[in-house]
UniProtKB/TrEMBL annotation, chains A, B:
It catalyses: (2R,3S)-3-isopropylmalate + NAD(+) = 4-methyl-2-oxopentanoate + CO2 + NADH. Pathway: Amino-acid biosynthesis; L-leucine biosynthesis; L-leucine from 3-methyl-2-oxobutanoate: step 3/4. Substrate binds at R98, R108, R137, D226. InterPro entries: IsoCit/isopropylmalate_DH_CS, IsoPropMal-DH-like_dom, Isopropylmalate_DH. Binds 1 Mg(2+) or Mn(2+) ion per subunit. It comes from Oceanisphaera pacifica. Homodimer. The lineage of its organism: Bacteria, Pseudomonadati, Pseudomonadota, Gammaproteobacteria, Aeromonadales. It is found in: Cytoplasm. This is 3-isopropylmalate dehydrogenase. Its EC number is 1.1.1.85.
């Protein structure tokens, strides 16, 4: 039977707590669906700085290289905020991992779950319409990695600079994935750019228009980033797939996550062209609630389901996890972040949420 | 008595209609407050393309140079959208004007007016808390104007690039204005950057921290752009002055404008270090309602008030206009964009709104 190697990187804050529940659920599916998961644990982020002096130690990187996929928790916290930007857990772990494994394709789904509309910070009539969007973000190009990047000069004339750069092939491959995602959804791609100011956006728009010709069944719209942040708030239900550069995807994906009001439910996928991927919750390490056993593990468990789907092609197992999560939520079991006074059951702990889901596999 | 020269650039769409009302109000204050305004009208934007072949004709630029301030309407519309980005009204008029007159300081206030909370797209409990924010945006630097900017190569390797660059002096002067604005307000500056990724942001943060030492009465916070778009939605009332680079200010100012739900009330100011300024409404040319006489002229009239305040130091006249606007709104006179079923008066036209305000000077 199939055997998959997973590098497990729980990280900081609530990472280890929610990761434990994801592993519990994965353990359940591997016996049910007849495959085996070979897990290796590695330090990453702040805990790796503390234990090994680096947010991404060589052993962790080697462990990821030896694996078929990376299940990532979250990194960062106040303890490491005094460090120089390059040494901080988020930047020092995530960016090198993305670059090293060429994880150019980042998918961040965000939707309002039925019954959870009240948690959205949007006006009731807007959140009642709901929304279901995937942000398809280019993750290894643009201003994040573009060269030159640096600082020079002195005194008042001292300057610091970064380069926003996109190559045709980079735009083309992420655009294709955007159109393919739209084909399996509602058939709309909205490409986000700033083509009225940026040369990189002008090329972006051109290439996206060319790629669109191969997907006549998909509707393509273009929108400027400033207008996109407005339209998302005014009527998020108009969007299906939002196709974004690295920087604009960073902004748009966070905005749409906040608009759901239930960030604890949002997973994210970063893939390379070999199907190797890194899977992580959208929410962050939440140091304020870490160690209390109250964090919502659903985003981490959903991330594990997406790993089964995208890296291992174990669709049935992925669906089983997603169904178990839907059942748990629709039966009224919620962790504190999504708890309402009129809920059927008392507030559930992280462990209880994990057990409800594992038991429903 | 003082005489001020104003270049009036109504532009496209609703621009000419709302400009007519601003001029009506300015005419009223000049007699009341004992100064004279010498107005010269010039084409800009799409209408200038149609009449003179360029969105910013030489005569318009010369007219602005001969003036003490520019009162700008709005530019753009579907008629000119097929043009190359560089030739389009928005880009072809606004960016050269900003660059030519070195209008590095852009202030965009956004607030929820009492009684208009329902128009905000935010959940009722969030909009009920209200907010009152000024986006202090650097307007002549960053990735908008940074060099090199271009395109090279062929085939799959063809690339397009832009340069995000900030000099210490550019950051320092806009930061000072941000801190000064906060001193006259609630004393909080939130500086928006992406210092976990961008070198330009690392310098930005350093310089802002240094400038902050001269303003010990102001609280300084730093926030990443992605988190800023989230926090604005979650709780806009936490912000006072948001200090932004050119690109991040473009995004943040539009997001906050949308969050008010009353974009027709928002003016904007772009200044150079001589006090020369360009004053324009935040909303855009709104081609869908142009020519119908229904657009809200308040943002244009407020822009005129800010011109009196910032470029001409006619504080009393500026206050008189602002008071007349407040009275008009609080007496229940609204154009269609802000009309509610339970309003005291029927929907007011653009001209009626202008008259209410002029009559209350
Ligand atoms: C931590 C940071 C470098 C990262 C990014 O900007 O990509 C984060 O915000 C994200 O979206 O994953
Ligand atoms: C039209 C465009 C170039 C401009 C900008 O990006 O600055 C506009 O969005 C604005 O905010 O004034």
């Amino acid at each position: 039977s199939a055997n998959y190697k997973v590098a497990v990187l729980p990280g900081d804050g609530i990472g280890p707590e929610v990761m434990a529940e994801a592993l519990k659920v994965l353990d359940k599916v591997q016996s049910e669906f007849g495959f085996t998961l070979e897990l290796s644990h590695f330090d990453v982020g702040g805990v790796a700085i503390d234990n090994h002096g680096s947010p991404l130690p060589a052993a962790t990187l080697a462990g990821c290289e030896a694996a078929d996929a990376v299940l990532f928790g979250s990194v960062g916290g106040p303890k490491w905020e005094h460090l120089a930007p390059n040494d901080q857990p988020e930047r020092g772990a995530l960016l090198p991992l993305r670059g090293h494994f060429k994880l150019f394709c980042n998918m961040r789904p965000a939707r309002i779950y039925e019954g959870l509309e009240d948690f959205s910070p949007l006006r009731a009539d807007i959140s009642a319409r709901g929304f279901d969007i995937v942000c398809m973000r280019e993750l290894t190009g643009g201003i994040y990695f573009g060269q030159p990047k640096g600082r020079e000069g002195e005194g008042a004339q001292e300057k610091a600079f970064d380069t926003e750069v996109y190559h045709r092939y980079e735009i083309e491959r992420i655009a294709r994935l955007g159109f393919e995602a739209a084909q399996g959804r509602r058939g709309i791609v909205t490409s986000v750019d700033k083509a009225n100011v940026l040369q990189a956006s002008i090329l972006w728009r051109e290439v996206v228009n060319e790629v669109a010709k191969d997907y006549p069944d998909v509707t393509l719209n273009h929108i400027y980033i400033d207008n996109a942040t407005m339209q998302l708030i005014k009527d998020p239900s108009q969007f299906d797939v939002m196709l974004c550069s690295n920087l604009f995807g960073d902004i748009i994906s966070d905005e749409m996550a906040m608009l759901t009001g239930s960030m604890g439910l949002l997973p994210s996928v970063s893939l390379n062209d070999q199907g190797f991927g890194l899977y992580e919750p959208a929410g962050g390490s939440a140091p304020d609630i870490a160690g209390k056993g109250i964090a919502n593990p659903v985003a981490q468990i959903l991330s594990a389901a997406l790993m089964l789907r995208y890296s291992f092609k174990e669709e049935a197992a992925a669906l089983a996890i997603e169904r178990a999560i839907s059942e748990t939520l629709s039966e009224g079991y919620f962790s504190g972040d999504l708890y309402k006074a009129d809920a059927k059951h008392p507030v559930q702990t992280t462990v209880q949420m994990g057990e409800h889901i594992a038991n429903r596999i």
